[in-house]
Hints:
- It is a single chain.
- Helix content is 72%, strand content 0%.
- It has 6 helices and no strands.
- It has helices spanning 17-48, 54-60, 67-87, 91-112, 116-136, 143-147.
- The longest helix has 32 residues, at 17-48.
- The two termini are 35 Å apart.
Amino acid sequence: MNDPIHPSNRLIIPFLGPIYGSLGEFAETLLRVVAGVALITHGFPKIMNPLGAMGMVENLGFFPGPAEVWSILLSLTEFFGGILITIGLLTRPAAFGAMIVLLVTVYFHWIFSSQGYAGAEKSILWAAIMFYFVIRGANAHSVDARLGKTF
């Protein structure tokens, strides 16, 4: 390993390199599962009452289409998208849908509710996590990998 660009040659404490390397995939899987479970948990009340977000959707002025459709799509995206992300099936499209929902919540908190960055901070963080999985997809610990196919 005489490659000066290799990450282990740039570590302040070089012996940590193998630890970082061996835990990288685990950390990525953990992030995906925690993010997916958080979406499931957040989406569960919505899936139990898929029309419950109609008022919020109407206030945001979502068009085209009736608020009922957007409310149902929100419920499905959060709950079932969370399940797909957790197990790593169709990870990229599920994360893309969740990212769109989260970007709308950024708008809702920052602009619509005038809460600024402080109100939108969690949504920004979650949208960035979803963006990571849109680009990266799932890893070897996923249904996508078991199927040998990815979107």
